[in-house]
Design goal:
Length: 471
């Protein structure tokens, strides 16, 4: 088994592109939609006034939505004096913060803009250019254009080029924009190191840092706007079912629910901690499907490496017996519904999923965490790779470290600063001795983090329980 884990770790290190996710989006993101916000001259006819600006919504965080203009809005110098000027001292930065800001937004719209104060990086800029790659200007955190576009591609199955290609407005074209004759696209400035993307003839990132030539390129501004002002219902709410006066009447997908207790901080002297769940679905009968926000245990799918299905694996027995008794009081157990589960075959390898089961505590299946196979059981919450990322509790994490720390490295993904982990699904994997999992990287069998191949069932892996509650 150690030989298998060694091979798997090596394979993962070779295939993965590890970059941190500094903050899991606290949102029902609606990313990739376009919205209108502000106005700017675009049709080249100054007599009819400015036109509404169309933006891509590229990242939701808390009550903010990060917007990137869909079109190249203007044709500007990076700096009128020198290409060596740092961005924050450049004439382009000044133009965005002053001239563009004043022209494009009304007082009400300015009030809805959240100046970005990320660790001093943007220094409260209301309108800014976004970095392209993580290494530039020491920008870390997984929020670069490259990473954001990749996540959008995972979520919406879109060609990344749909976002990288940029087309100038008629006004921009009249300012002298170079338009590639075959694509109609033009180059546009990136904040970091005077980079700009040129997709006139293909994907490339050019660096004019060593050039002495002062030149003009396209401008696609970014702005962070109050999500509610834009009509996005982004803010998650929290409900604590230990309070008798709390109901879930207004709860919606993605909200947090406290229910039950389990050891999590790894300090046994202070007792168990309340379990934080994510609301996956509100059912017609008034019940709610919940999955734990964090992985709560680190266990084998089955205690022996033998052919097995969800119906007869030892992890199912542990969840419905030991965990059920440890995590929920008698009163809480009365609120948990028994659920009939359909255990589908593996869609890639055809491995049999076995008989339907009835469970009080269970694990998600392949078809419940992805809609790639057209499943009627898919939970909408799991809409992209990032939504499947899961952190371990401090109680669970040491068990992971004992097995993997000898490698001297971790996967590189994180959720709110905690280590992201692979976690079990109940579906079969490569064969009946394997079970499917969620991985923290993407590869051939790991589309959007769903590993159809999985791990041998006697491997230890993180456990993320699911319950249906009728408050």
């Amino acid at each position: 088994m150690k030989r298998f884990l060694t091979f798997t770790l090596i394979l993962a290190l070779l295939l993965s592109t590890a970059f941190a996710v500094s903050e899991k989006a606290n949102a029902e993101s609606d990313v990739s939609k376009t919205v209108y916000f502000g106005s700017y001259e675009q049709d080249g006819d100054l007599t009819n006034g400015p036109e509404p600006i169309e933006w891509y919504a590229i990242e939701g965080k808390g009550n903010s939505m990060l917007l990137l203009s869909k079109y190249v809005l203007d044709w500007q110098y990076y700096d009128k004096n020198s290409m060596q000027t740092p961005y924050k001292q450049s004439s382009l930065c000044k133009w965005l913060k002053e001239s563009f800001y004043e022209q494009a937004f009304t007082d009400a719209e300015k009030a809805a803009i959240h100046a970005d104060r990320r660790e001093g990086y943007y220094d409260g800029e209301a309108v800014f250019l976004h970095p392209c790659r993580e290494e530039e200007e020491h920008f870390q955190g997984g929020g670069t254009l490259q990473n954001l576009f990749d996540r959008m591609q995972n979520k919406y199955r879109l060609d990344t080029m749909d976002f990288y290609y940029a087309f100038p407005t008629q006004y921009c074209a009249k300012q002298g924009a170079y338009i590639h004759p075959s694509t109609g696209a033009c180059t546009w400035w990136i904040r970091d190191g005077r980079h700009f993307l040129n997709y006139g003839g293909g994907a490339s990132v050019d660096n004019f840092a060593r050039s002495e030539t002062v030149t003009r390129r396209g401008v696609r501004p970014c702005v962070s706007v109050d999500a509610e002002y834009l009509g996005f219902p982004l803010r998650r709410r929290t409900f604590d079912l230990s309070d008798p006066g709390v109901t879930l009447v207004s709860a919606r997908m993605g909200d947090y629910i406290y229910f039950g207790t389990y050891e999590q901080d790894n300090d046994l002297s202070n007792g168990k901690e309340p379990i934080k769940w994510i609301l996956l679905e509100r059912r017609d009968d008034g019940s709610f499907v919940l999955t734990s926000e964090c992985a709560l245990e680190y266990k084998q799918y089955n205690e022996s490496e033998t052919p097995v299905t969800w119906e007869n694996c030892t992890l199912r027995r542990w969840l419905n017996e030991d965990y059920y008794q440890a995590a929920f009081s008698t009163q809480e157990q009365e609120k948990i519904q028994s659920v009939r589960l359909e255990n589908e075959d593996n869609p890639e390898f055809g491995t049999k999923g076995g008989n339907a089961t009835v469970d009080k505590v269970w694990l998600l299946s392949i078809n419940e965490v992805t809609d790639l196979f057209g499943s009627k059981f898919h939970y909408e919450y799991f809409s992209d790779f990032e939504s499947r990322l899961c952190a371990m509790t401090r109680y669970c994490d040491p068990k992971y470290q004992d097995e993997y720390n000898s490698w001297g490295t971790r996967w590189g993904w994180s959720v709110d600063g905690a280590t992201a982990c692979d976690w079990w699904l109940r579906s079969p994997g490569y064969d009946s001795g394997w079970a499917a999992i969620i991985m923290t990287y993407v590869g051939y069998y790991y589309d959007s983090g769903v590993d159809l191949r999985g791990y041998p069932v006697d491997c230890d892996l993180s456990v993320r329980p699911v319950v249906v509650v009728q408050p």
